[in-house]
């Protein structure tokens, strides 16, 4: 947390970006992007990522692109 001009700003805890053990849905590729953007002051929503979504023809990154505030160029 941080106090600035009488306002309390709370931040979620973010583990180191390097050296993480991969765990799908917990410390996976999207979590890495989300945490990196959080450290830059940009919040991105978390969303459910079921196992093997990439093998079932889904593309969760593109499907949730708009919800994260990004767009495809």
UniProtKB/TrEMBL annotation:
Superkingdom per UniProt: Bacteria
Name of the molecule in the record: Peptidoglycan endopeptidase
